[in-house]
User: Which sequence fits this backbone?
C-alpha cells in the first residue's frame, strides 16, 4: 500500500512536502513515520441504479489521516479523476491545515470517481446515500465529519445527514458540515472558503503596501471557492480581470463585471461566451500580469513549466495542492512572489465547518456577521503567526505553514506515546 500510494503523483507530492518539513523540524524517525502515513484507507464499491435502468458500480474512498487530535474532518469530492492516492494526499493536507488553524481535528478526505456534470440529481442522490450507508460504520460526529468539496454541495451533505440520521433513528446534524442552514448548517459556511481567501489577499496586499482598492486579480476556477473569492474581492474594490472554469477563460483589462458574470454562469453553466469580456487561453491567462493570482480549482496547475513565467505579486492558493514541488522551488528561488500557502489560504472553509459543528453540538446558532467576524479573527491570527514563524526561522511561507501543522501533530503523537 505504501508503494501504491507513493506511485500516485499527488500523494508523492504531499509525501515529498512532508519529508522536507520533517527534515526541517529534525523529526525523530519513529514519530516521522507515524505522522506520514494515513491511519485508515477505506474503499467501498457503490452500485447505483441509473435513470435508464442500468446498474453502474462506482468506487468511493475515504481516507482518515489521523485521529490523534480529534475526529477527522474534510470534504467529499465528486470528480472523474478521483483515486485513492489523491484522496490520501488531500487527507494529509487537511491534517496539517486543521493543526495549523488550531482546530481539534485530524485530516480526512473522501472522493467518488464519477462525473457529476453528466449525472442527474436523482442519480447523485442515490450515489451519495449509498456511499453514506457503506461508510457509516467508519464515520460519526466524534470520528469523521464530512463537508462539501469539488463537485459536491450542501445538498449532498443533506442526503448524508438524512441517511445517517435515519440509520440512527434520530436527527444528527453534527454528522456533516456545510449542510443547508434549514438543517442547522451554519450561516456564512457557503461563502467561508472564498471569503477567507479574499480576506487573506487583502492582508497580503497590505503587507506589500499595495492598495486593496484597484488591485488586480486573476482567478482560475469559478466553483464555490473561486466564485465567492471573486465576489468578495470585487466588494473590496479590487479589479478581477481574468476568470476561468472548465468551459474556458474570459478577460477584461478594466475588470470583469462580476454580477453580470455570475448571471451569465447561472444561465449557461460556465464563464465561456460572457459578453463583457474577451476570450483568452486558460493557460495563457495564468501568465498575465496582475497583483494576485488565485488558483481555485484542482491540484498541480502551477508547475515547473509555468512557474518562472508567472507575473503576479501574490499567489493565493485557494485550491488544495495547486503548486508542485519543482514549481515551489522556482518560486522560492525567484523570491518576488508572496505565497499564501493552500493550508492557510483555503482554511476558511474548514474553520467555519468547525464553527458549524460546535454550534450543532451546543444546539445553538450564531449570526452570519458573528461567524464571519470569528473567521476573520482566526485567519488573521494564523496569518500573523505564520509571518512571525517564517521571519524567525528564515523559511518560506510553504515550509512555515506545513512545519507549524506537522510540529503540532508530532507533539501530540509524542505525548500520547506508542500503543501497545
Ligand atoms: N473541502 C474543504 C477543504 O478542503 C472543507 C473541508 C471541511 O469543511 O471539512 O478544506
Assistant:
Amino acid at each position: 500500500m505504501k508503494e501504491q500510494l507513493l506511485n500516485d503523483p499527488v500523494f508523492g507530492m504531499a509525501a515529498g512536502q512532508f519529508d522536507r518539513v520533517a527534515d526541517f523540524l529534525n523529526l525523530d524517525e519513529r514519530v516521522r513515520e507515524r505522522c506520514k502515513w494515513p491511519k485508515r484507507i477505506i474503499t467501498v464499491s457503490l452500485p447505483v441504479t441509473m435513470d435508464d435502468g442500468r446498474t453502474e458500480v462506482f468506487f468511493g474512498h475515504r481516507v482518515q489521516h489521523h485521529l490523534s487530535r480529534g475526529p477527522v474532518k474534510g470534504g467529499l469530492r465528486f470528480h472523474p479523476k478521483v483515486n485513492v492516492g489523491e484522496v490520501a494526499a488531500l487527507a494529509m493536507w487537511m491534517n496539517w491545515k486543521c493543526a495549523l488553524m488550531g482546530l481539534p481535528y485530524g485530516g480526512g478526505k473522501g472522493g467518488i470517481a464519477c462525473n457529476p456534470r453528466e449525472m442527474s440529481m436523482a442519480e447523485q442522490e442515490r450515489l451519495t446515500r449509498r456511499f453514506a450507508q457503506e461508510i457509516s460504520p467508519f464515520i460519526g460526529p466524534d470520528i469523521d465529519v464530512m463537508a462539501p468539496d469539488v463537485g459536491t454541495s450542501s445538498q449532498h451533505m443533506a442526503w448524508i445527514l438524512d441517511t445517517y440520521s435515519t440509520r440512527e433513528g434520530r436527527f444528527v446534524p453534527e454528522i456533516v458540515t456545510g449542510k443547508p442552514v434549514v438543517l442547522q448548517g451554519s450561516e456564512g459556511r457557503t461563502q467561508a472558503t472564498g471569503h477567507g481567501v479574499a480576506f487573506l489577499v487583502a492582508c497580503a496586499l497590505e503587507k506589500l503596501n499595495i492598495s486593496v482598492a484597484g488591485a488586480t486579480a486573476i482567478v482560475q476556477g469559478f466553483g464555490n471557492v473561486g466564485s465567492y473569492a471573486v465576489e468578495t474581492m470585487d466588494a473590496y474594490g479590487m479589479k478581477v480581470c481574468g476568470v476561468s472554469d472548465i468551459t474556458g477563460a474570459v478577460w477584461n483589462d478594466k475588470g470583469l463585471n462580476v454580477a453580470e458574470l455570475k448571471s451569465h454562469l447561472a444561465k449557461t453553466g460556465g464563464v465561456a461566451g460572457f459578453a463583457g469580456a474577451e476570450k483568452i487561453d486558460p493557460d495563457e491567462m495564468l501568465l498575465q500580469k496582475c497583483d494576485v493570482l488565485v488558483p481555485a480549482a484542482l491540484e498541480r496547475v502551477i508547475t515547473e513549466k509555468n512557474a518562472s513565467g508567472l507575473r503576479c505579486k501574490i499567489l493565493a492558493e485557494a485550491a488544495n495542492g495547486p503548486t508542485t514541488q519543482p514549481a515551489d522551488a522556482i518560486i522560492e528561488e525567484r523570491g518576488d512572489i508572496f505565497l499564501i500557502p493552500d493550508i492557510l489560504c483555503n482554511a476558511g472553509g474548514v474553520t467555519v465547518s468547525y464553527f458549524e459543528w460546535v454550534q450543532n453540538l451546543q444546539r445553538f446558532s450564531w449570526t452570519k456577521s458573528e461567524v464571519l467576524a470569528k473567521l476573520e479573527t482566526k485567519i488573521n491570527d494564523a496569518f500573523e503567526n505564520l509571518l512571525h514563524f517564517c521571519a524567525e526561522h528564515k523559511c518560506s511561507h510553504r515550509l512555515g505553514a506545513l512545519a507549524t501543522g506537522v510540529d503540532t501533530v508530532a507533539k501530540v503523537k509524542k505525548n500520547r506515546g506508542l500503543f501497545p
Notes: The chain has two domains: 2-176, 192-345.
